[in-house]
Amino acid sequence: MISIFSSRLFYLLLPTLIVFLAFFLIPMVQLVIVGGSGEEGVMAYLTFLTKARHFESMVATVLLSAVVTVVALVVSTIAGLFLVRNRFPGRETLVSLLTFPLAFPGVVIGFLIIMLAGRQGLIGSITKSLTGDKVVFAYSMAGLFLGYLYFSIPRVILTVMATAEKLDRSLEEAAKSLGANQWRVIVDVMLPALKPGLIASGAICFATSMGAFGTAFTLATNIDVLPMTIYTEFTLNANFAGAASLSIVLGLITWVALFIARSLSGSTVAASG
User: Fold this and answer.
1) Gyration radius of the chain's alpha carbons
2) How big, in percent rounded to 5, are the helix, strand and coil portions of the chain?
3) DSSP string of 105-117?
4) What's CA 156's distance to the chain center, in Å?
5) Burial of 225: CB neighbours in 10 Å, binned 0-12, 13-18, 19+
6) Which residue from 181, 207, 223 is spatially nearest to 57, judged by alpha carbons?
7) Sign of CA dihedral 9, 13, 18, 21
8) N or C: the chain end with fewer CB closer than 10 Å?
9) Alpha-carbon distance 226 to 212, whole Å?
C-alpha cells in the first residue's frame, strides 16, 4: 500500500521536478559556473563592490527600486482603501483601468513614458507653450521612476484591495468609541491589519523593479541600472563571466528581499506572487 502511494506521489511530483531541474536548477548552476570562469575567478562576484560602474549601477538600482516601492505602497494603499470602502458608478471600470498596465510589456510602458515626457511628449509640448522651454525627462532617472511606478501600482493595489476587504470594521468603530481620532485609527488599527499585504506587495514590487529590463531598455539610454549593465556586459563587451556574476548577485539581492518579506508576513508573499 505504501509502495503504491509512493509511486503515485512520485508521478504527481515528476512534472514539477522536471520543470524545476530544466528551467531553474540546471540553468542556475550553469550561470554560477560561468560567473566564476572569467579571469577574475570567483572574485567576479564582488565586482559590484570593486568596479565603479558596477557599484554605481547596483546602488542606483537598489535606491530606485526602494523609492518606487515606497511610493507605490503609499499611492496604492490610499487608492485601494478608497475603492474598497466606496461604491460608485464606474468603480469597476476604474479598477480595471488601474490594473490595465499589467497587460503591457515593459517596452510598451517605456514608450508611454516617452509619449508623456519625451522630446515629442505631452509635457514637453505644454511647457514649451507656457514657458518657451521644453521639459524632457523621459530618459532620466525621473522617467525610469515613472515607468517603474506605472507597472508597480497595479501589482500593489490588487494585494492591498484583497487585504482591505478582510478588515474588521468593528475594530475601527471600537477605537473611535474610545476616543481615537481618524489618524490614530489608521495608525493603530488599519495599518497593522494591512501590514501582511503591504509587506507582501512591497516585496513583489521591489523584486520586479530590481529585475525590470524592458522599461529600462527603452528609457535608460544614459542611465546604468543593473539589468542594463548585465545586458551591455553580455552583448557589447562579450563579458559572459561578468554578466553571469552580476545576474547571480541581482538574484541573491531579490531573493533576500523576498525571504525577509516572507518571514515578516508568513506565506502571504508566496500567495501574492
Assistant:
1) 23
2) 80, 0, 20
3) -HHHHHHHHHHHH
4) 9
5) buried
6) 223
7) negative
8) N
9) 9
- Rounded to an integer, what distance in angstroms lies between the CA atom of residue 161 and that of residue 16? 31
If phi > 0 it is left, if psi is from -120 to 50 it is alpha, else beta; for residue 134 that is beta
pLDDT in tens, the chain (273 residues): 556 667 777 778 888 889 888 888 888 898 888 888 878 788 888 887 888 888 899 999 999 999 999 999 999 999 999 999 888 898 889 988 888 888 888 889 999 999 999 888 899 899 988 888 888 998 889 999 999 999 899 989 988 898 888 888 888 888 888 888 888 888 888 888 888 889 988 998 999 999 888 888 888 777 888 999 999 888 888 888 888 988 999 999 888 888 888 787 765 544 443
For 207, the 3-state DSSP assignment is helix
pTM for the complete prediction?
0.83
Q: Tell me the C-alpha to C-alpha distance, in Å, between residue 61 and each of 64, 173, 213.
A: 5, 42, 11
Q: What cell was used for 10?
A: 512520485
Coil vs helix vs strand at 236: coil
Nearest alpha carbon to residue 254 among 202, 215, 219, 197 = 202
